[in-house]
Amino acid sequence: MLDFLRNIRNAAIGKVDVELEFREILKEINCHYDINEDEEHNVKRYYFDFQSGNFVAAFYNGVGVEVTFPNCFTVPVEEIDLLRLNCNRFNGSSLFHRYIYSTNEEENKLNLHISFFCDDLRRHLVNLLKACFQTQRDFIDEYNKVKERNGEEQNSLDPEHRFALDSRELFLIRKMEMAHQANATQGLPTAESTADKPLLLCDMLERLFPIIGAKFTTMTITTGDKVAFKSGDAEIRKTETAQLIITADTPQPQFRADQVTATVNFKAGHTNDPERTVIVHLKAEGASGNSMFYRITATLIQQEVNRANTVESHSNRPCTISFLARYSGSSEKQRDQEFNYMWEEAKIKLKEGKYKELSDDQKLLAETNETNVAYNLYWGQIHLRDERYYQALLHFENAYNSMRDEVFTYDDSGRYNFYEVCYYVGFCYAMLKCYEKAFFYLNLVSGTGKIRFATANVNVLANSGDVRTLSVIDGIMEEIKREYNLGDSEDNDDIPEHIIHFINFLRRRRAYTLIEFDMLDEAETMLTPMLNEPENSEFAIDELAYLHQRRIQLKESGKDELPF
User: Does residue 226 share a domain with residue 120?
Assistant: First the structure.
């Protein structure tokens, strides 16, 4: 302690140059380094290699140096509880080293960092550097032992798990405490009102494709060199997608094969057309913890072309949908416990007056007064963050159906929450490229004045080639001009930055739509000024190149002179 105080005093009067001493030591141990100066935070960092490790050293006001051994251990984000537990245990017993972790959102991983502070470099720096390797080995060994004792089921009950899963969607599901509903946590939805039930193949097909009143006739399942058959509507409707590719009746579920193909024939109940066929391809995508992932790609085969069903008809448009699905080995009880824990934790936070600490998305869930709505939004967000859009959709639609009948009894806050649910249902349908269904939900919220809602609605219209796209974009632009007193130039220094970004988005979508409808001259007029705009230049270059190719195609086909 005396040495530490002495070094602080000496540094303050200029007797010790810690940085110079640090460079001398690195030179003595043959370590090369790079320097980065963070002028904003008044911190200078040295990046150097020592033995087999990469280290970072930071200097603060000449008092000493903080050295970090970054990314020295990596685990899946699902194991956040174990990593936190190990960090807490080692931080409690270590005299010199600190253990922290961070989230790598891009790879969905957690990285461990070991650090220490050194004020007497000559006496301790090299020894502390060497000790990093031993403490790294001790940490990993202890972590693996704890993981083995706890088995493979790592169901986090901590809210941090939700944040770590995907920082792009900080939507931690919460439930408002209801004083008059003491036993509300026991009122979880039944199997009929929640998506926590088997993913039925026929239910999926009817939800995603324009199949109305279908009667399923036959199904052929091909797994490697094995072929199985099913017949009859009742029998086929019992089929679970996970059962086609996963063996669940063993102590440890496993994939039957890397790929499985199911060919399903059905007859539409509202027509006399011949049978139609859907080909469903399932591909194993690996496992993590107690979850197994597989990709579903379903293709609705086109009908035979005839006078009533031309090539340009809706029935003969390409129709393929692909998404990621998950089979979880966790029990319904475990999922209920996780939801209950999060709900109770929200109640505690609200009682402590920490409501303002919640993000906007968290407030939405905290203000939800229906238990089944909160439950479905909770699990819907988990699936959404993992890009399992279909499974998220099932939950969000359950929430929508629960709120729809009561929407006219809501106050302004409750009605806004309903609009948020509509947005998420539409968003999931859009990601599954079911644009007509997506528009149904997003159109409900497009006029609420929220940029997020309007952006999603415009994207759906533009991506689906809807003839209303241009008029909707022009209508929004007129509203913005009226709101901010803009002229035709659209140049105004008083416009908020987020509105400028939104205007640029609308301009890009408008130019894209003009090209899609072969209105090439008008599109070129819009795109040319964008070449000199940093936010739009890359888009303009790509679209102008495509526009040029499109002109050549139209000229070769004799359609370069359009009636409009």
Answer: no
Task: Classify residue 523: in a domain, yes or no.
Answer: yes
Cα distance from N-terminal residue to C-terminal residue, the chain? 84
How far apart are the C-alpha atoms of 515 and 521, rounded to whole Å? 9
**Reduced to 3 DSSP states, what percent helix, strand and coil does the chain have, rounded to the nearest 5?**
50, 20, 30
Asked if residue 9 is part of any domain, the answer here is yes
342: alpha, beta or left? (left if phi > 0; alpha if psi -120 to 50)? alpha
* Alpha helix segments (H runs only) across 352-411: 360-366, 371-385, 389-404
Q: For 189-201, what is each residue's pLDDT tens digit?
A: 222 222 345 778 8
Tens digit of each residue's pLDDT (9 = 90 or more) over 120-162? 888 888 888 888 888 898 899 888 877 776 654 344 434 333 3
- Residue 480's alpha-carbon distances to 55, 447, 484, 505, 509, in angstroms, are 51, 13, 6, 13, 16
- Per the structure, the complete domain to which residue 290 belongs is given by 199-328
Residue 502 lies in a domain: yes
Kindly state the tokens that stand for 21.
């001493």
Domain boundary, last residue among 90, 123, 151 = 151
Buried b (16+ CB within 10 A) or exposed e, 314-327: ebeeebebebbbbb
DSSP codes joined into one string, 531-544: TT-TTTHHHHHHHH
> What is the number of structural domains in the chain?
3
Query: Is the same domain home to 15 and 99?
Result: yes
Helix residue ranges per DSSP H, 352-487: 360-366, 371-385, 389-404, 412-431, 435-445, 451-463, 469-484
Give the helix/strand (H/E) hosting 36.
strand 33-38
